[in-house]
Write a structure and sequence with these properties.
By secondary structure, the protein is an alpha/beta fold. It has two domains: about 170 residues, P-loop containing nucleotide triphosphate hydrolases (Rossmann fold); about 100 residues, K homology (KH) domain (GMP Synthetase, Chain A, domain 3, 2-Layer Sandwich). Helix 6 crosses helix 9. The longest helix has 18 residues. The protein binds guanosine-5'-triphosphate and magnesium ion (MG). Guanosine-5'-triphosphate binds next to helix 1.
Amino acid sequence: MEITKTAIISVVGRPNVGKSTLTNKLVGRKVAIVSNKPQTTRTRITGLLNKDGCQYVFLDTPGLHKPRSRLGDYMVKVVEDTVSEVDAAALVVEPVANIGAPEESLIRQIEAAGIPAVLVINKVDTVKNEALLAVIAAYAARHDFAAVVPVSARTGKGLDALLSEFEKFALEGPQLFPEDMVSDQPEKQVAAEVIREKMLLLLDREVPHGVAVGIEHMETREDGLTEIHATIYCEKASHKGIIIGKGGAMLKKIGELARRDLERDLGGKVYLNLWIKVKEDWRNNQYQMRNFGYQDE
Ligand SMILES: Nc1nc2c(ncn2[C@@H]2O[C@H](COP(=O)(O)OP(=O)(O)OP(=O)(O)O)[C@@H](O)[C@H]2O)c(=O)[nH]1
Ligand SMILES: [Mg+2]
């Protein structure tokens, strides 16, 4: 396929609205981890799609929230930086007729950047069609969106219509990424994120939010087995106990689920070795954050 144009789209919104689910569905592959807990995505993740001569570059971002740690400050900065350097923004919202503080702040950023924006009303599988009219009216009164598209990132409903809206922002130009690429994340980062996703799935409250994963070693041997040595960093000794679980059961479960996903992604056997370390309050320590890859470029 010859790529002649590119559309760079930032995917923004409050935490938990389905930005990463949407990005994955558009790309057709899982490039960003997803969970039912807010603040799952911590950094910018590029998802790529090539279709009908156009390369779509989706920039999935952390959910915009009121930061309570240095990590939170970093996440908010990622959103701010991403909004201004794109052809258009996709503002993803819940199907509720009420513009909240995160949406208001994002609309302001979009207006300040002077970029066109598409309002993406997600999770329409959870509401009746009639309810959407009030949502559309509320947002249309606040900002002149280039388009309003109700979708379900979960079922895929409305995504063709959404893509054709994005295509209108495409610019002629050289191809930015190779055609077989779906994300710009290094393999180690993907592995670390998969492990973090399983902790978001299996652990409650503050524990998974205070976790970071470092990949010490990752190597695919000649026989096809990929060996991964990872360290889970948590904030408190009490969290360490919870992550390990009774008789090591929780850690085993995290490792099993992560390994299954990684084997599917890598298309081969995986040996996954998990260690746990406590790094007190790392979310407020710039040096530690940098070590985990949460740093300004
Ligand atoms: N019913 C329904 N649920 C959805 C839809 N899209 C996403 N979800 C769910 O919403 C939750 C959050 O999804 P994510 O994709 O992680 O949301 P996010 O906006 O990336 O969240 P952060 O990274 O924390 O900002 C998950 O439980 C998803 O399964 C949808 O279209 N319909
Ligand atoms: Mg996300």
